[in-house]
Write the C-alpha cells for this entry.
Amino acid sequence: MSDDSLTSIRTAWTTTLEEPSVLQRRLSEQRLQNDQLRLLGSAIHVAGEGIAILTPAVEAIGPRVAFVNQGFCHMYGRTREEIIGQPAIIFGVVERQQAMVTALLHHVFEKRPFNAEMTAARKDGTEFELELHMVPIEDAGEVTHWVAFLRDVTDMKSQTVRLRHQAMHDGLTDLPNRAMLLEHLDKSISQARDQGATVALLLMDLDRFKEVNDTFGHQFGDILLQQVAFRLSNQVGETDMAARIGGDEFAVVLPQPPDSTAVARLARNILSTLEQPFLIEGQALEVGASIGIAMYPSHGTDSRTLLRRADVAMYTAKQAQSGYSFHREDGERQTADQLSLVVQMRSALERNEFEPFYQPKIHMRSGLMTRAEVLLRWHHPQRGLVTPAVFVPIAERTGLIRAMTDWLFERTMAQLRAWHDAGAPIHVAVNISAKSLLDQTLPAKIDELLTRWQLDARFLKIEITESSIMADPSHALAIMSMLQSLGVRLSIDDFGTGYSSLVHLRELPIDEIKIDKSFVGGMTKSEADATIVRTMIELAHNLGKQVCAEGVEDEATWHMLEEMGCDLAQGYFMSKPKNAPDLMEWLVANSWGLKLKPKAK
Ligand code: C2E
Ligand code: CA
Ligand code: CA
C-alpha cells in the first residue's frame, strides 16, 4: 500500500471522527484487498501462459496492448517495451493465416469472445502453434478491456499428429496400416466412381516368411519385413499407396491406373525386386512373394469385396506359383474346394485315409529291386485317390505336414521291419518337404524310431528336393549333417530343376542324385536332354555319388541309361507306385524283383 493512500485514510479518519474501532476495521479490509490485488497481479505475471490485457477497439483501430505478463514476453521472445501500446497484430499470426486476424477483429468489433488455433511467429521468425482465447471485460454494458489468454500448443499438437500417425501406420515399417489403406481405398473408389475411372488393389504375401521367423528368430524376420517395405515403397508411384496390413501381408492401391497391363507390370516389378536376395546379418536370404489383384469396378465396387477378391487371387497365384494373378470368377470356387480339403485333411490322419505307396528303384546292373520310394496317397471318401501334388502344399501351409511326416515315418519303419523280418532287406526312401527340413527335431525323432524298431539306419534314405535345399542351403546343410551322422542316407531329388552350383553338390553330405524326370522323359528324343543326363551321371560319379534316373517310361530309355552307366532307375516302365501288398506280389512275380531269401529263423 502506498504512503499516499495511507495518508488519505488517516485524513478521513481524523476528519469524520468515526469510532476508532470502525476505522481500524476498514483500514485492515482495504489492506487485505490491496494485498489480494498485488498477489493476483504477480500470479498473472508469472503464469505459464501468456496473458495480455488490451484496450477496447475504437473505430477502425483494433485493440491495443495495455499489459502483458512474463509468459507472453517469453512466448514471443520480445520485451514488454516492444509490446505495450502495439495493436493486436503483435500476436504474430503468420502471413498465410491472415484470415484469422480478420476473424479476430470481426469478433472484437462485435464484442464477442474469440477462440482459435493458429500458427504464430516469434520475434526471431521461428513459428509455433498458438491457442488464443479472447474475452471482453464489461462494466455497465460497456467493454472496458479485452483479456487474451495465449498458449503454445506446438508440443501438444505434434503429439496429436504423432498419435494420429501411430494409429494409421505400422510401427515396424512405418508404412500405412490396414486402417489407413481401407480409408484410402474407399476414397480412391469414390473418386473413381465420380470420374468413371478404375482402381487397382494388389495384395502381397511373402512365400516363406514363417519359416524365416521360425528358423532365424523374430528379430531377423522384423529386419526382413523392413527391407521388403523399403523395396516395395520404391516401386510404387507418388499417388499410389503401399501399406503393411498384417504379419507378412502388404498391399498397394493404385488410383486410376491406365489399364490392367500397367497393373501387371507393377506386380512383375515388385516381384522382381523381391527376387534379389536380402542381406541380413551377413546372411543372404531369398524370399518369394505372391500377388493377388482385384480391380474396381470390374471385380467389385466396394473395398471389402475388392479385398476379398484380391485375397483369393493371391491364393491362386501362390497355388499356381505364377507370381501374380488377377481375380477370376472360378477362383473363389477353387478356394472353397481348397478350404474344404484343409478341413478334411485334419481328420484324414485319424480316419486312416492315408496310405503309403511304394515305387521300386531298380539296380540297373543286376536288374534287382533293392530300394523303394514311399509316395503317399490319400483315399478321399468322395474324390477318390488324391495325389501328393494336391495335398502336400496344403499340408505345408497349414502346418499339418509335421503330423503327416511323423505318421509316415512311423509307418515306414513298421513296413521296413516287416519286410526285413520276411527276409527282404529293402531300402526305403522317404520324401521330406522344405518345411520338414526346417524342423530341427527331425533328426532326434528319426533316431528314436530307428532304435525303437531296431533298424539299421542305412536302410532309410531321405529324399530332399534340390529347391528346398537351395531355399536355405546353410540350414539344410546343418540338418542333413545331423541326419548323416545317424547313418541315414540322403538323396537329392529333382536334380537339375533347381539352381544349385556344383560347389554345393560337393559340400552336401548326399549319397544319391536323382535326375529329374523332365530330362529323363525326353532323352531318347532330345539330344540336349540326353547330353544333360549324361553330364549329370558323369558329374555325380566324379563326386563319388550314385545316380538314380526317375521317370523311366520305356525300354529305349532304360537301355540308353544303362549304356551311360546310370546306377538306378525308377519309373512306370518297371512299376507304378503300389501299396505294400501289391508290391510284394509284384516282387514275387516279376523278374525285376529281388530274389526273396527264405525267412531266417
Ligand atoms: P517325386 O519325389 O519326384 O516322386 C516321383 C513322382 O513321379 C511320383 O508322383 C511318381 O508317382 C511319379 N512317377 C514315377 N514314375 C514315373 C514315370 O515313369 N513317369 C511319370 N510321368 N511319373 C512318374 P507322386 O507320387 O504324385 O508324387 C509327387 C510328388 O509329391 C513327389 O515327387 C514328392 O516330391 C511328393 N511326395 C510324395 N509323397 C510324399 C510324402 O510322403 N511327403 C512329402 N513331403 N512329399 C511327398
Ligand atoms: Ca522323391
Ligand atoms: Ca523326383
Observations:
- Residues 493-494, 514, 516, 550 surround calcium ion (ligand 3) (CB under 6 Å).
- The radius of gyration is 41 Å.
